[in-house]
UniProtKB/TrEMBL annotation, chains A, B:
The keyword Cytoplasm applies. Residues 13-75 form the HTH dtxR-type domain. One of its GO terms (cellular component) is cytoplasm. It is found in: Cytoplasm. Homodimer. GO terms for molecular function: DNA binding; DNA-binding transcription factor activity; protein dimerization activity; transition metal ion binding. Keywords: Activator, Cytoplasm, DNA-binding, Manganese, Repressor, Transcription, Transcription regulation. This is Transcriptional regulator MntR.
DNA sequence: ATAAATTTTTAGACAAATCTAAAAATTGGT
DNA sequence: ACCAATTTTTAGATTTGTCTAAAAATTTAT
């Protein structure tokens, strides 16, 4: 048994604590990014005052660093805990889709419950049963027992072929004009985008997003990351 | 969807409430047996005063009948809820043993967690994946979606006469030491057991199992259920 | 039948996780 | 640098499930 797992075993965490750690990880993902109280509150669908209370408790437990009015960062231990929860969540998602015929939109709610089941043997056996998958049904990477994982293969929208479908996962250019353009056109993280056509003349794209057809320039498309489906 | 399932869907129950209902069912099993506050407290490993509080709450919700100083009985709805929890618990136990190589003594703790996962589709698909089993790994019957189940015609090994043959179908004692003993001696559900001899002095038995002769105490034999062969 | 023993309930407290409302600190615009 | 807006924290309350200690009801024994 690794050193990490000894720590995880000793730590007894409530469901609520685990959800905070998971959300904080998703908002930052490492030990150096400061996450604000309000951002956490919004993701947790709770009030900032509740977040402050929980931040103090989790800092007390050594899972994050907290400084008044500054925000929090995960400790190394906090990252390990987050990865172990995410590992469980994503493995359960694969299980539900592969073994129990769940559709992609049905898995999340159930996986949110299953990720809190406490049994090392359980999740390791599920992992084995599934053949040690590397990605979940949404294409997100599944951390190994030791917390290692491969970042998913995302690509620029401009590199997608005609008729392909992807989910918007990030931007390359982070300038204000570009982000404003995205806002104005209601292009947001998580949106599904289908490439309808690519114009030979200027490589501009005709895409389907939010059930609406939209034409965007090659320059726009070459600054949007998508995760290709299938 | 049956009427019952409509009710179960509307009822939102906490984990603690579900555990009370399950324990009360195990102590009585029907709508007419009065269960005492102390008995529940002992099984729940809690104090009688806590049981009183919870009894009032569950009566309020229509799951049981409660009269001061008398005890409680389950309502019809309470029985249905209990059966649905027991169904989940036992199906998960089969899953853990059949699909994930858990041993008899490892399943209980994890099934205690899994039985509270809320998803009708999840448990129905697990049921299908397992081929709609009728009995769990301890030989206890699994209620159907409609709450019906067949108690098995079984008897204690200690009540079998010399030279009789039976098939192991369950255990009376489900404690870890007993289950570990069975694992160690390769006594498992489905094994055929022949009673070779019964010692007058201490009622210990000499049995034939897996084509091997084995001596077991009367105490062991009185905690093993077998189904007698014609 | 009545006193003693037991069981059950009540009353009041506590911990966890949340909330609201108000106070304090930080940030941003001019 | 200062005022206004925003963010964050504090203080105090609420809910759920539990506890202890004491009171009340029931059961048992003589």
């Amino acid at each position: 048994m690794t050193n990490k797992n000894v720590f995880l075993k000793k730590l007894c965490m409530t469901r609520s604590e685990e959800n905070y750690i998971k959300i904080i990880f998703h908002l930052g993902g490492n030990t150096s990014t400061l996450i604000s109280t309000n951002a956490i509150a919004e993701q947790m669908a709770t009030k900032p005052s509740s977040v402050t209370d929980m931040s103090k408790k989790l800092a007390e437990k050594g899972l994050l660093h907290y400084k008044r009015y500054q925000g929090v960062t995960l400790t190394e231990l906090g990252v390990k805990v987050a990865l172990s929860i995410i590992r469980k969540h994503r493995l359960w998602e694969v299980f539900l889709v592969e073994k129990l015929d769940f559709t992609w939109d049905e898995v999340h709610e159930v996986a949110e419950q299953l990720e809190h089941i406490k049994s090392e043997k359980l999740i390791d056996q599920i992992d084995a049963l599934l053949g040690y998958p590397k990605y979940d049904p949404h294409g997100d990477p599944i951390p190994s027992k030791d917390g290692e994982f491969l970042e998913r293969d995302k690509q620029l929208l401009s590199d997608m072929p005609k008729q392909s479908i992807g989910v918007c996962v990030g931007v390359k250019d982070t300038s204000t004009p570009f982000l404003k353009f995205l806002d104005k056109n209601q292009i947001a993280l998580g949106n599904t985008i289908k490439v309808l056509d690519i114009e030979d003349f200027d490589q501009s794209l005709s895409i389907l997003i939010n059930n609406k057809k939209l034409n965007i320039s090659h320059q726009i498309a070459s600054n949007l990351y998508v995760k290709k489906q299938n």
